[in-house]
């Protein structure tokens, strides 16, 4: 794992703990189940990430961060 990957994982984990990840998902009108389905995880895991009681592991943190970034950009463009 390189330094850039660690930075991306750290940013995503901060987004989860701060509530930003949940805010982005809700603003995009997506359910936790929909996000979980795309990431290949259980909905309860997404809930724990959004509450800050668990942190995404690297194998799912990167795709989750990319999804949130894409949603945020799409909402900003509209």
From TrEMBL:
One of its GO terms (molecular function) is DNA binding. InterPro entries: Cro/C1-type_HTH, Lambda_DNA-bd_dom_sf. Residues 22-75 form the HTH cro/C1-type domain. SMART domains: HTH_XRE. Signal peptide: none annotated. It comes from the Bacteria. This is Helix-turn-helix domain-containing protein. It comes from Mycetocola miduiensis.
